[in-house]
UniProtKB/TrEMBL annotation, chain A:
It comes from Haloferax mucosum ATCC BAA-1512. Keywords: Phosphoprotein. SUPFAM superfamilies: CheY-like. Coiled coil: none annotated. The lineage of its organism: Archaea, Methanobacteriati, Methanobacteriota, Stenosarchaea group, Halobacteria. One of its GO terms (biological process) is phosphorelay signal transduction system. The modification 4-aspartylphosphate is found at D53. CDD domains: REC_CheY. This is Response regulator CheY.
Automatic annotation (TrEMBL), chain B:
Residues 299-335 form the CheC-like protein domain. This is Chemotaxis protein CheC, inhibitor of MCP methylation. Coiled coil: none annotated. Keywords: Chemotaxis, Hydrolase. Gene3D superfamilies: CheC-like. It comes from the Archaea. It comes from Haloferax mucosum ATCC BAA-1512. Residues 59-142 form the Chemotaxis phosphatase CheX-like domain.
Automatic annotation (TrEMBL), chain C:
Its EC number is 3.5.1.44. Transmembrane segments: none annotated. InterPro entries: CheD-like_sf, Chemorcpt_Glu_NH3ase_CheD, Cytotoxic_necrot_fac-like_cat. It comes from Haloferax mucosum ATCC BAA-1512. Belongs to the CheD family. This is Probable chemoreceptor glutamine deamidase CheD. GO terms for biological process: chemotaxis. It catalyses: L-glutaminyl-[protein] + H2O = L-glutamyl-[protein] + NH4(+).
Length: 122, 395, 169
């Protein structure tokens, strides 16, 4: 089943790549370039899943994730980042992230991660 | 064997003044201005050194030294640089010298004079005498410089054994001739020099070895990430940790225009990282990431920034995990400027608090030369030292 | 025993390369070059009567105790002037052209005193003013790198930039 996805990444290239990758599988309902925009768009669009970059200007993805989770404890957030440090992953879990994908990612992994969080929610 | 920052400084100074003397010899001998660009003390394993020689097609002259200090010096040229130098030494000679014997003998003589001058300073510092052997000319050699050393009685353990290499980048005649002067002392001789500089809070060489292992792992991860993103096979050509006077960091690059990203990292250690491509490489990598989107410059810039991001993470995550800490990485800043000028502000910022730097530089290349990616990481010296302490076997 | 050594320090051709934290004087009309100025400052000094010229490439503004003089703008200018004087230049005639001092990145570590590039320019101006040397041309600041070539015959300072192309000061 197609889900509504909010893509959060400061890189236009990455947002584009994710959109291409999700095409035909899920619907990308919005794109945010930083953590502040991500929270605003989350309120506005109420997506099923958020893919969240970690290193972003203005507000990073970990902070944005905790804020989204405090707004909506049922939100599904998948960290989608090049940072593969174990300590950072722990921080993401503490912030409430539901999944963690490291870049460069492959299509099956992204689709699987989305399927898993949707399943968990259902 | 223990090593500390003060002895590294002593090494660096000795090597630099020796190289300046060697450059002066060539200036006089060949009538072409020769400069020492950078003197690096490289901390790597024996296999790192072998790999570097094997990857580059080099013409070299080897001279051993023994007595108060034992080891080997190597003067290494690209074939083009060797040809230009021979031409400067003996204009018009190569046409009549079919088997290259005269060319070889002139390069041997150059090496003899340059390397002799290089070694003198070390002997004086240690208040000892050092003899040098007769030069050996090596062309198209794939056995590496250390084989030679072993043949001359230089005892080394396995390929993982740690070695110190003093590497001086020299150039002559307005960059037309570029070459490297290497000095590889035996481990015992390094011990001799460390003792002479008399430092007692030295770190065991194993912690440098452990760190340079992390640098290698980081470079391999970065290479795998680039391959996974672009679908093009890449290999790590060089990856090394060296100790350099801070002003030597930008001088390791030319002022050719480069494109890429600069990022700041903070934690233990903090510092700067630059991921740079030459212009054709930047074009090729952007095209492979964005097939069919040649016109969209903003998207191409974004793609280069993202690859910088991913390469940086590939490079630094292993450090953070091994040191059980986190390293925060800033968003990538896109750069498109003279190579040395890109690195200059990074080195200058650190120059406010340190005179020498640990420089990590790696080169990742595709097999067909479609693109080359250079990574330069510049950690804060004091913080890196703390990190190295953590890696000490005793800690 | 008398030891005969060859003086291996004098340049042979018409160009001398100035490194970073380095300076050089030309009294035989040879060209002085330096590359890769980012936040660093390049100071070109020239005596039009004798054609004695000098070029310094400094990293940081003011020298600190124990610092290497060629690394800092103030001390490298002093050194350059005294060597130029020794080579026959008259300080009263010497004029300056300066280039570099850009701010390429805004690092988090930058303190409130402004960027290193800005501080390099400021210290260079102060030091030159202290010796009564007029700055006749400059290409400073911005966010790009520069490479320099000082023609000791004419005093022309050629500036190469990846962003703004080539220019002559």
């Amino acid at each position: 089943m197609a889900s509504k996805v909010l893509v959060v990444d400061d890189s236009a290239f990455m947002r584009n790549l994710l959109k291409q990758l999700l095409e035909g599988e899920h619907e990308v309902v919005g794109e945010a370039e930083n953590g502040v925009e991500a929270v605003e768009l989350y309120r506005e669009l109420d997506p099923d899943v958020v893919t969240m970059d970690v290193v972003m200007p203005i507000r990073n993805g970990i902070e944005a994730t905790s804020e989204i989770k405090s707004l909506d404890s049922g939100a599904s957030v998948i960290m989608c980042t090049s940072v593969g440090q174990e300590e950072k992953m722990r921080e993401a879990v503490e912030a409430g992230a539901d999944g963690y994908i490291t870049k460069p990612f492959q299509k099956p992994n992204v689709l699987q991660a989305i399927a898993d969080v949707i399943q968990a929610e259902a | 064997m223990n090593l500390d920052v003060r002895s590294l400084r002593t090494f660096s100074r000795l090597a630099h003044s020796g190289a300046e003397k060697a450059a002066g010899s060539l200036t006089t001998l060949a009538g072409i201005d020769t400069y020492v660009n950078v003197t690096k003390v490289e901390l790597g394993t024996k296999s790192d050194v072998e790999t570097e020689f094997a990857e580059r097609d080099l013409v070299s002259v080897h001279i051993g030294f023994n007595g108060g200090l034992d080891g080997r010096t190597v003067l290494a040229f690209s074939p083009e640089s060797a040809e230009r130098l021979v031409d400067a030494l003996m204009p018009g000679i190569d046409a009549t010298d079919a088997d290259g014997e005269l060319a070889a003998s002139s390069l041997k003589e150059v090496a003899n004079i340059m390397l002799g001058g290089f070694i003198d300073g070390w002997a004086d510092y240690l208040d000892t005498s050092v003899d040098i052997t007769t030069p050996t000319y090596v062309e198209d050699d794939d056995s590496g410089p250390l084989k030679e050393i072993e043949a001359s009685g230089f005892e080394h353990g396995g390929t993982d054994e740690h070695v110190l290499v003093f590497r001086n980048q020299l150039e002559a005649a307005d960059n037309a001739i570029e070459f490297d002067l290497y000095m590889v002392p035996t481990p015992d001789s390094i011990g001799t020099i460390v003792e002479a500089s008399g430092e007692d809070d030295a770190l065991p060489v194993e912690s440098f070895a452990a760190f340079s292992e992390m640098v290698n792992d980081g470079a391999n991860q970065a290479s795998a990430d680039i391959t996974s993103m672009t679908g093009i096979d890449t290999t790590v050509e060089v990856s090394r940790l060296s100790f350099v006077p801070i002003e030597g960091v930008p001088m390791s690059l030319t002022d050719a225009v480069r494109r890429g990203v600069v990022l700041e990292f903070s934690g233990t250690p903090s510092g700067y990282i630059a991921i740079l491509f030459d212009e054709p490489s930047a074009e090729n990598i952007a095209s492979s990431l964005l097939p069919g989107m040649e016109g969209d410059e903003a998207m191409r810039q974004s793609a280069i920034q993202e690859i910088g991001n991913i390469v940086t993470s590939g490079f630094l995550d292993g450090w953070a995990n091994a040191l059980e800490t986190t390293i925060d990485i800033s968003p990538p800043k896109h750069v498109h400027d003279l190579g040395s000028a890109i690195i200059d502000p990074l080195a200058t910022d650190l120059a406010q608090s340190q005179e020498y730097a640990f420089l990590i530089d790696s080169t990742i290349r595709t097999d067909d030369d479609e693109f080359t990616c250079d990574i330069y990481a510049l950690p804060d010296e004091t913080e890196l030292r703390k990190a190295l302490e953590q890696l000490s076997p005793a800690a | 025993m008398q030891v005969y050594t060859t003086d291996t320090s004098s340049p042979q051709s018409g160009r001398t390369k100035v490194g970073i934290a380095d300076y050089a004087v030309s009294s035989d009309q040879s060209t002085l070059t330096t590359s890769g100025l980012g936040s660093c400052i390049g100071v070109a000094l020239y005596d039009p009567d004798t054609c004695v010229s000098g070029l310094a490439h400094a990293m940081l503004p003011e020298i600190e105790p124990g610092g290497e003089p060629a690394k800092f703008a103030d001390s490298s200018i002093e050194l350059l002037l005294s060597e130029m004087e020794a080579a026959g230049a008259n300080i009263d005639r010497v004029v300056a052209k300066i280039a570099g001092g850009s701010t390429m990145f805004d690092f988090t570590s930058a303190n409130g005193d402004g960027s290193i590039g800005d501080r390099n320019v400021e210290t260079t101006r102060e030091t030159l003013a202290r010796f009564g040397i007029e700055i006749v041309a400059e290409d400073i600041g911005g966010s790009h790198g520069r490479s320099l070539e000082l023609d000791a015959q004419t005093g022309d300072l050629r500036v190469r930039s990846a962003k703004t192309g080539n220019s002559v000061l």
